[in-house]
Automatic annotation (TrEMBL):
Family affiliation: Belongs to the UPF0213 family.
Organism: Pinibacter aurantiacus
Pfam family, one: GIY-YIG
Source superkingdom: Bacteria
Domain GIY-YIG: 5-81
PANTHER family assigned to the protein according to its UniProt record, in alphabetical order: UPF0213 PROTEIN YHBQ (PTHR34477)
InterPro entries reported for this sequence: GIY-YIG_endonuc (IPR000305), UPF0213_domain (IPR050190)
Name of protein: GIY-YIG nuclease family protein
CDD domains: GIY-YIG_UPF0213
Length: 105
C-alpha cells in the first residue's frame, strides 16, 4: 500500500508588504511557525505577522519544490496576478519577460 502525502506550495504576505514563497507538508502548522517566529533565520521572522494569500496542493514533493522555485523567480506583480487569478496579466507578464522591449521608454 502506497502512502499518499500532500505538499503545499504557499505564498505569504508579510507585515512589510513583501512576499514569501515556501513549501510544506502541513500548511496550518507552518503558518503557525512563521507567525510564532520558530526559526530565527527565516525570512519572515522579523516581518510578522504574515498572512496566507495563496496555496497549491501537490502529491509529489519534487513537483512541489519545482513549483516553489518557479514562484520564487516570479516578480511581485506576477505573484499578485496569480493569487488574484488574473490569468491575462500572468500571460502578459510572461511575454514581457521572455520578449523584453528594445525601446528606451
Amino acid at each position: 500500500m502506497k502512502l499518499t502525502h500532500n505538499y503545499h506550495v504557499y505564498i505569504l504576505k508579510c507585515r512589510d508588504d513583501s512576499y514569501y514563497v515556501g513549501v510544506t507538508n502541513n500548511l496550518e502548522r507552518r503558518l503557525y511557525e512563521h507567525n510564532e517566529g520558530f526559526n530565527d533565520h527565516c525570512y519572515t521572522n522579523d516581518k510578522r505577522p504574515v498572512v496566507l494569500v495563496y496555496s497549491e496542493l501537490y502529491s509529489d514533493i519534487k513537483r512541489a519544490i519545482l513549483r516553489e522555485k518557479q514562484l520564487k523567480g516570479w516578480s511581485r506583480k506576477k505573484k499578485e496576478a496569480l493569487f488574484n487569478s488574473d490569468w491575462e496579466q500572468i500571460k502578459q507578464l510572461s511575454k514581457s519577460k521572455n520578449n523584453p522591449s528594445t525601446s528606451s521608454g
